[in-house]
């Protein structure tokens, strides 16, 4: 089977568009469509369901995509076995990570990685939504918080201590909380990436165990930018990683409260699919990420 045809199909499946795939490959739409049709004819099944408005992967197409990705990876590793000199890392690298880690820590350091590996094409997703690593074609993802995924390899990178903060305007209106009992007179800004599973109160630890104190909220948001903005606007207290709040604290735009009643630190984990071999470019990127984050995160 033509490996280049597999690459074309995977890009169409990922893009959900023949046109976008053709543009990225530098081919005509007709050529891309013909390659996929030939694959379907060879396999005797429909890989993509097409309408005038959309392209979606069929169940057979999803199964084929997963096996095709593994086959391409195996071919890369096989070629590397017989190269006398380590080949330059090349190819597409698709990763996902939390927005704050991306903007404040990793993106400022990316020039050093891409300078060392100029033939890598990096695609970086940095939304707060939890992507599906396998089905959405990511090589690796970074997660902050508890893990729910199964069947993935998890590499702990460290943790982010959390602090409690409010704006001076909020504290001037509601007062400074001095104890957990005082929180009955305060309000919380809630955070949930899905707006369906928001924390229902104040998180803290007692005797080494996580606890929850029910607390009122007038606003729930689903991304970290809005979460910080709501706190800065005086809408309530938030509990967030200290890593992303340093500048606001220095400027006096936010103030720490109840330092003795912080939420548990957020674990940061690197996840990737369980395969016999990991592509060299993916392994190199993961090792680089671990080194960069190891400089700023607390030990796991």
Q: Explain this structure to me?
A:
Belongs to the LysR transcriptional regulatory family. Keywords: DNA-binding, Transcription, Transcription regulation. InterPro entries: LysR-type_TF_proteobact-type, LysR_HTH_N, LysR_subst-bd, WH-like_DNA-bd_sf, WH_DNA-bd_sf. With 300 residues, this protein is an alpha/beta fold. Among the domains are: 1-87, Winged helix-like DNA-binding domain superfamily/Winged helix DNA-binding domain (Arc Repressor Mutant, subunit A); 162-264, D-Maltodextrin-Binding Protein, domain 2 (3-Layer(aba) Sandwich), CATH 3.40.190. The protein contains nine helices and 14 strands. It has helices at residues 3-15, 18-25, 29-43, 59-81, 99-116, 168-174, 224-232, 246-251, 280-294, and strands spanning 48-50, 55-57, 90-96, 119-125, 140-144, 152-160, 162-166, 188-191, 201-206, 209-214, 217-221, 238-241, 255-256, 266-273. The strands form five sheets. The protein has a five-stranded mixed sheet with strand order 4-3-5-14-6, with helices on one face. The protein has a three-stranded antiparallel sheet with strand order 12-7-13. Strand 1 (48-50) and strand 2 form a beta hairpin. It is elongated and about 70 Å long.
């Amino acid at each position: 089977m033509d490996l280049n045809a597999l690459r074309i199909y995977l890009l169409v499946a990922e893009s959900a568009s023949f046109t976008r795939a053709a543009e990225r490959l530098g081919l005509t739409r007709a050529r891309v469509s013909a390659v996929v049709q030939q694959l379907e004819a060879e396999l005797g099944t429909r890989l993509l369901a097409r309408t005038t408005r959309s392209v979606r992967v069929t169940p057979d197409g999803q199964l084929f995509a997963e096996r095709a990705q593994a086959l391409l990876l195996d071919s890369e590793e096989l070629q590397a076995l017989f190269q006398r000199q380590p080949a330059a890392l090349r190819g597409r690298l698709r990763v996902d990570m939390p927005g704050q880690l991306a903007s404040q820590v990793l993106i400022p350091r990316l020039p050093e990685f891409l300078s060392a590996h100029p033939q890598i094409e990096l695609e970086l997703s940095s939304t707060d939504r939890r992507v599906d690593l396998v089905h959405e074609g990511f090589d690796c993802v970074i997660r902050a918080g508890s893990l729910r995924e199964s069947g993935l390899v998890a590499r702990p990178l460290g943790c982010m201590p959390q602090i409690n903060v409010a704006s001076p305007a909020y504290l001037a209106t509601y007062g400074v909380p001095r104890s957990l009992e005082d929180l009955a007179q305060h309000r919380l800004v809630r955070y949930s990436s899905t707006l369906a599973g928001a924390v229902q109160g104040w998180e803290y630890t007692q005797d080494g165990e996580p606890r929850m104190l029910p607390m009122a909220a007038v606003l729930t948001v689903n991304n970290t930018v809005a979460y910080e903005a709501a706190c800065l606007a005086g809408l309530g207290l938030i509990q967030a990683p200290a890593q992303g709040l340093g500048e606001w604290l220095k400027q006096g735009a936010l103030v720490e409260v109840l330092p003795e009643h912080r939420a548990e630190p957020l674990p940061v984990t690197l996840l990737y699919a369980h395969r016999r071999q990991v592509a060299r470019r993916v392994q190199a990127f993961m090792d680089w990420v671990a080194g960069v984050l190891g400089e700023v995160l607390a030990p796991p």
